[in-house]
């Protein structure tokens, strides 16, 4: 298992990235109809950027999968997952103190802002790792049906979620990915607060976000359809993406 890293630390390969954020006058007030519609709109925005092949689209499941599936289809790129498992505080499990990002070995990213909470220690985090890594392995087995992970080194990698609030999961994912040496790393989300987007810029080459409403409320409020995705729906989307990109 790799040595834990603090989430605020900059990777030696990272540099401040550019921010593609639509001006306020161009941001629609109406919610996205669905995650799929948001994905098509992100794909339209990505088409305006020079994307050098090979391309790889990575979804943060579950909510990021329908968004990323539309992007992968539009760009003709393979779709894969990036699995991240949160480790919560001892008495507040929804509050992330660290995150485990899949890899060989898995990477542990410490949340510096919450690492000093009562009961949080290196021993506590390490005690939670076996459960986290088992769940990551289970999800990849279920979702990807044994398909190998796509290579990332030297690729233009686009990491997609259906939105961000604090951005904790996305930050952990990007910090781990940067050490896997993509040629270009892009974070793409339909909606997020402006300050959360700004916090990502040192981890990526570009951040693309369609809307950044202020004040920001729950991600789901920006969608008409924000249903909870089950494993069956996620698997169907990934199977379809794999079939579409499989060499003929």
* Radius of gyration over C-alpha positions, nearest whole angstrom: 17 Å
Distance between termini? 38 Å
What assembly state would you assign to the polypeptide chains in this entry? Answer: single chain
Mean pLDDT: 87
CATH class: Alpha Beta
Q: SSE string, helix = H, strand = E?
A: EEHEHEEEEHEHEHEH
The figure for the number of domains is 1
The assigned structural class equals alpha/beta
The total count of helices amounts to 6
Which sequence of strands runs across the widest sheet? 2-10-9-8-3-4
Number of strands: 10
Tell me the major beta sheet: 6 strands, parallel
Fraction of residues in helix:
25-40%
| Unreliable residue stretches | 5-14
Outline: globular
Instruction: Examine the secondary-structure arrangement and name the CATH architecture.
Output: 3-Layer(aba) Sandwich
Describe the protein.
The chain is of the alpha/beta class and 248 residues long. The protein has one domain: Rossmann fold. It is 32% helix and 21% strand. The protein has helices spanning 35-46, 64-75, 122-144, 168-178, 194-200, 231-245; strands spanning 5-6, 18-21, 55-59, 79-81, 84-89, 92-101, 107-110, 156-160, 184-191, 206-211. The strands form 2 sheets. It has a 6-stranded parallel beta sheet with strand order 2-10-9-8-3-4, with helices on both faces. The protein has a 4-stranded mixed beta sheet with strand order 1-7-6-5, with helices on both faces. The longest helix has 23 residues, at 122-144. 40% of the residues are buried.
């Amino acid at each position: 298992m790799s040595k834990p890293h603090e989430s605020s630390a900059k990777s030696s390969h990272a540099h401040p990235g550019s921010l593609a954020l639509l001006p306020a006058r161009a941001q629609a007030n109406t919610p996205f109809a669905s995650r799929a519609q948001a994905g098509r709109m992100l794909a339209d925005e990505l088409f305006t950027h020079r994307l050098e092949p090979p391309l790889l689209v990575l979804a943060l499941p579950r909510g990021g999968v329908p968004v990323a599936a539309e992007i992968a289809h539009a760009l003709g790129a393979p779709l894969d997952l990036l699995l991240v498992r949160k480790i919560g505080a001892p008495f507040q499990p929804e509050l992330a103190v660290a995150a485990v990002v899949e890899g060989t070995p898995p990477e542990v990213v410490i949340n510096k802002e919450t690492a000093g909470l009562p009961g949080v220690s290196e021993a506590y985090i390490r005690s939670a790792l076996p459960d986290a890594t088992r769940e990551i392995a289970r999800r990849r087995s279920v979702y990807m049906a044994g398909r190998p992970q796509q290579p990332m080194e030297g690729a233009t990698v686009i990491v997609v979620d259906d939105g961000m609030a604090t951005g904790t999961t996305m930050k952990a994912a990007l910090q781990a990915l940067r050490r896997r040496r993509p040629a270009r790393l892009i974070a793409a989300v339909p909606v997020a607060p402006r300050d959360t987007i700004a916090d990502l810029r040192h981890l990526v080459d570009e951040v693309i976000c369609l809307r950044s409403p202020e004040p920001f409320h729950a991600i789901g409020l920006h969608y008409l359809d924000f249903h909870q995705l089950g494993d069956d729906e996620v698997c169907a989307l990934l199977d379809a993406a794999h079939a579409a990109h499989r060499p003929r």
